Amino acid sequence: MSTEDVLKSKFPDDALTFSQFRDNHRVVVPAAKLQAIFNCLKSDLGFDMLSEVTAVDYLEYEGATDRFGVVYVFINIATGERLVLKTFVNDPQPTLPSAYSLWKSADWLEREVFDMFGITFTGHPDLRRILTPDEFTAHPLRKDYPLKGRGERHNFPIVTRADS
Amino acid sequence: MAMKDVPDNIFMTTLDAAASWARANSLWPMPFATACCGIELMATASSRFDLARFGAEVMRFSPRQCDLMIVAGRVAMKMLPVLQRIWLQMPEPKWCISMGACACTGGVFDTYAVVQGVDRFIPVDLYVPGCPPRPEQLMAGIISLQDKIKHGGTLNGTEFARRDHSTGPIPFDKDELIRIREANEQLISLN
What we know:
The complex is a heterodimer of chains A (164) and B (191). Chain A has three helices and seven strands, in the order αββαββββαβ.
């Protein structure tokens, strides 16, 4: 039974959208069912590795109905099967359940998504910024954040030669 | 004492000149190498180009043992406090070379995360242009710095006391303020 059939039989009432591009098998799931689908992927389908978590900001994107798309890439190490899972969240307070309890690799991956997009993951043990400094306040990969920043890069004390 | 009374093996000079001569020919670089310029810096120090010919081959990774900081590569805003701290930890007298386009101006990385020139926040004595500069160019820079030390150096480092202004543009210069204003206007139009 393929991954698609298992997911369809386990979640018959939810509109899971499957698609395929070459070898990429993709599924779009509702955010409310994410935790249940995580459990199913880990225990029933044997996806024992979470290789990637990232996000897309669809602000100003033509035809988009949701603000953020969060993308997970799972690998079944025994069979080599890969699955790309996508879900959507919206302002204000975009929140998703953390995958940390099932896949430990979610730790830093979710911290990066939190840092860059401001999406919070409930149940994450240590949701801090990972790339930008702790005192940074913005989420730089959001489309409404200017490329050149809001002056953070110049907000430092000046050390002159006379005082050093 | 007339000059004719001085034996051949004694020569006279000023203390400043003697100290500067010694300092210029024994620069110990602190390699603050964060990007591809660091690779050229390593090439400069290795046998083909051999920085040892100019007395500057002793790279030390502890700031306490260095007197020449070579900032080679882009400096991210998270790295800048580290850079300033390392600079402050270096003992006097000390000099700084800003190597490559990114360290001098931010280069092509005009983004929120990259400092647009380290000379805005630490004093820089010499700029080496290039992306990245070839080892010959870095050596030319080090030789120029040696000239600078030999001709302006003093025993007590009094020439440094006058440099109480940043050598680069002020952090929020006119261009930067215009950029910030444009970014905010763009933001308002989005919302």
